[in-house]
Amino acid sequence: MKIDEIEVRVVAPKVRRYTWSQDIPEQFMTNTVVVVRTDDGLEGIGAISNYTSFCNAKYTAENLRHLTPILLGKDPLQREALWQRMFSRISPYASGAIAVLDIALWDLFGKMVNVPIYRILGGSRDRIVSYGSTPLLEDIPAYLQFVSELLKDGFRAVKFHTWCIPEKDLALARAVRKEYQDGQIAFMLDVENNYDRASALRAARELQDLGFTWFEAPLHDSDLDGYRDLTRRVDIPVLPAGDWIQDLPRFAHALQTHAWRVARTDVTACGGITPGRKAMTLAEAANTNCELMSWGCTLVSTANLHLMLSCSNCTYYEQAVPYDAYEYGMVDTIRTASDGYVSAPKGPGLGLQVDWKGMDAATILRFSLNSKTSVSAA
After folding, report:
1. What is the mean pLDDT of residues 154-173?
2. What per-residue confidence (pLDDT) applies to 56?
3. What's the CATH number where 316 sits?
4. Measured between alpha carbons, how far is 120 from 117 in angstroms, rounded to an integer?
């Protein structure tokens, strides 16, 4: 069995746009979707989401023009070898471009053996508690109303994306805790790398007093010294954003030097499921949880869901809400049930069915490469 064809498309649905910080415009969400086909007629699907401020993004697809030839004619079951081939040691490609191909190869293998990916990876469980991950809302009353709606939908945990201004963010934290007593619902705060060290410490201490479950991305991921100092001085788990430290050696160094009490990554940030499971193992060896991001389109969030279900050191699934903007182009979706959990997809591989007519309607770039012809674009 050999890889015979790879199709790449950029999908730009006209959905409502959101942001997660006062200083970031509402974001365009462009999905790069890949289909890897073999000469035996099997296929695997992968996707990643790109967020950009001023227009839809094609940069992942353009990276894929240079990566897809590496895979043609190769055995799709040699995922580790193929990942190493894609991981350039000279001029690095976008991690998302490597990730989307790696996800597609895992999906293909799961379909070949008729087993969901999470079971192939070890199958620690088949469901996990979810938290609703909010966009930036207008004001505190809007957040309180949103939390009320999430509770009615079954959520028992909420993570706030806010203005990323300490005084305003902490006012919200006080308001939601006043409305909902500690233990009634879990709260997290994500401030998108926007605080300085002094404001991060002040906020962490107050969030700790308010019984928040964790404090995410107060500093830039690269400020490991700042994270070490903050982690030493508070008990609340402090997490990085998980976007910037993408290579395993630096990830391992951060764990070994106790930069974080809880780690964070994403299969699209670290380059796919293949390195993602290694990151989870590194965190487990350091006796540390690793809370995976699963924000984004359904296929992206599902890839992260499979990885977290295969491990025991991740406690929450990140459910992007409101739902509609992230479910475009899918027949099957992942939603939080009335008991606050999300469950594993039932099908093999990623386990979800794509609405290809919907994908076609929103495709703004499409090309394919096969073993017999050169790249064709439309």
Report:
1. 98
2. 96
3. 3.20.20.120
4. 5
Answer yes or no: do 286 and 358 share one domain: no
Look at residues 94, 74, 98 and name the one whose alpha carbon lies nearest to residue 84: 98
**What range does the domain containing 287 cover?**
118-343
How much is the average pLDDT of 51-73?
Answer: 95
Residues paired with 343 in a beta bridge? 127
Q: How far apart, in whole angstroms, are the C-alpha atoms of residue 188 and residue 293?
A: 13
| pTM for this model (two decimals) | 0.96
Rg over alpha carbons for the chain, rounded to the nearest Å, is 20
Distance in angstroms (rounded) separating the CA atoms of residues 327 and 332: 9
41 Ramachandran zone, left/alpha/beta (phi>0; psi -120 to 50): left
When divided into structural domains, the chain yields a total of 2
pLDDT digits (tens, 9 = 90+) for 19-31: 999 999 999 999 9
Contacts of 108 (CB under 8 A, 6+ apart): 36, 38, 42, 43, 44, 76, 349
Give me the helix-helix angle, 197-209 and 166-179, nearest 10°. 10
SS3 of 161-191: the string is ECCCCHHHHHHHHHHHHHHCCCCCCEEEEEC
Looking from the CA of 170 toward its CB, the CA atoms found within 13 Å total 16
**CA atoms of 185 and 316, how far apart (whole Å):** 13
Cα–Cα distance, 211 to 173 (Å, whole number): 10
